[in-house]
Amino acid sequence: MCGIIGYIGKKQVVPILIKGLESLEYRGYDSAGFVIQDGKNIKVIKKAGKIKELKKKIAKEKFNSHSGIAHTRWATHGKPSEINAHPHSDCNNKISIVHNGIIENYRFLKTKLIKKGHRFLSETDSEIIAHLIEEMPGKTLLEKVQLATKKLKGAYGILVISSDYPKEIIVVRNGSPILLGLGKKENFVASDAAALLGYTKKVIYLEDGQIAQLKANSYQIIDFSKKIVKSKINEIDWSLGEIEKCGYDHFMLKEIHEQPQSIRDTIAGRVRENNVKLGGLRNRFDELLNAENIILSACGTSWHACLIGEIFFEILAGKAAEVNYASELVSTVKPKFPPHSTMLVISQSGETKDTDLAIQKMQAENMSVFGICNVVGSTIARRCGAGIYTHAGPEIGVASTKAFTTQIMALAMMAFNLGDKDGFLDQNFSKKWQKGFLKEIIKIPEQIEEILKTDKEIKKLAKLFYKKNNFLFLGRGINFPVALEGALKLKEISYIHAEGYPAAEMKHGPIALIDENIPVVFIAPKNDAVYSKICSNIEEVKARGGIVIAVATKGDRYIKKIADHIIYVPETSWLLTPILNTIPLQLLAYYIAVLKGCNVDQPRNLAKSVTVE
Ligand code: AGP
Questions:
Q1: Ligand 1 binding pocket mutation candidate from 250, 296, 302, 600 (most atoms within 8 A of CB)
Q2: Could you write out the DSSP letters of every residue in 108-169?
Q3: Ligand 1 atom closest to Cα of 398?
Q4: Phi then psi for 137, rounded to 5 degrees?
Q5: Can you list the alpha helix ranges (DSSP code H) found in 351-401?
Q6: Cα dihedral 134→139→142→145 (10° resolution)
Q7: Has residue 375 got a pLDDT over 70?
Q8: Does the pLDDT of residue 557 top 70, yes or no?
């Protein structure tokens, strides 16, 4: 989850590196630095803190360089500090590297290198890479790097420059995302497309086990056994505008308000009057059709989407389904699944290490894996080989919002498509119901727009409760995952302790927490089969002096009698209520965090994409 960027070409490199770091800052931001070719030598500048600290440090410096690499860090080994910031160099300051990922065998390698006389300055795993390259034989930098990478274990995206080879940058990808940006008489490299926008849209996604030699007017890619690789040139379809905040105070608020459009973009060309068409599945659809069990897996917010998808596959496609944390799948010695199981992973970034490892584990068991991702060409998207993209556009805020609602929509479309193709829908639902459900899907964007207009009421609620230290979020059935998501949103950006619970579970212990100091948010859609039970749970909380905030269905008058505060959302199919019910919870978390003065887009300790185990 660090950000890396490199440039070689005709322009001055420092402004490009700084701008690139700023666009990557959301990926990790406890320190930053860069190294440039400085005529005869290489010059390293780095600083703890945010990019603005680095900019302050170089404000009075003059640079004249056309090649360099840079890094913004999210610490995995060694505390956030200037000495641990990247780049890291070899003993003679002739080779310098930036690294994203984890070198698992760094202690072993470091001990060997120290015995050979190498001197280390930092506590990081990354620093050993520069000394290892220094140690390698080889007539070219490419050869030295290729030999060094053979000794590394772990996940890494590495950029290397050397004063002995001033006209090139060497790029290595093995487990952490890296893409090359191709320009005219200039070339770029970055861990994320966001850093390339505004310069080029032509990109090559490096694959694991590949090394690129980047020059101003050319590039070549080899694999770890030195075989030349021919790679496809892709076009990034994001605009620079999509990356900027467009007048909102935070990326998160912008992305909450983009949800009508991101849902429209996700269903466009897919949801029609009578059916759903999903191109990304076509050549492997039979694997889904023949699956008797669908294993959904992800992390964080995407895992909450899996919990909703499980219900979609059971209700709309008659498939048995189960949900696993990706990290737990990887930790389970020998996960046992029924025969004819198929895996479906969900990942906004497409780079979450835990999820990628879960895929590899299940593919090693010959299980077919499909993916729902938001980033085209991401590691997980390419490893699955089939699935569907949520067209949510770049999600910069660390707290996932539009990705979550588009993931739910993608799951609904996938389950409907599956149930339609294998006849389950016709056996269990009338054509009228099916058409009505698709109509409800098409109405969702305008209904989200309606909810977004209640922004001010939610801001008022936030003012009442932003000083509270604990929150409970309670839901049942298909809205239990919404309770989990509401709690996660609040805790990850406001640092208030919040728990999501199945509402009925309260009486088995947690109800002891209830008093006048803990706001309890209930998700209480009227047309849900469990509505009356939710109302009883609200009464149980009220009877113990609790404060109840209810997310309820527009027109529901009964709820007014039992809840203290109500946020209304429009009525939709009970299966789609999670999408609408999530919006007010996103806004509530956002406004509470802003009132608390938290860094909403870059919450402490978090990174947008967790590319380490
Ligand atoms: C959600 O707000 C968090 N940022 C986090 O839980 C995130 O959903 C999780 O890390 C999974 O990320 P992914 O969807 O990119 O795989």
A1: 302
A2: HHHHHHHHTT----SS-STHHHHHHHHH---SSHHHHHHHHHTT--EEEEEEEEETTSTT-E
A3: 4
A4: -70, -175
A5: 353-364, 379-384
A6: -30
A7: yes
A8: yes
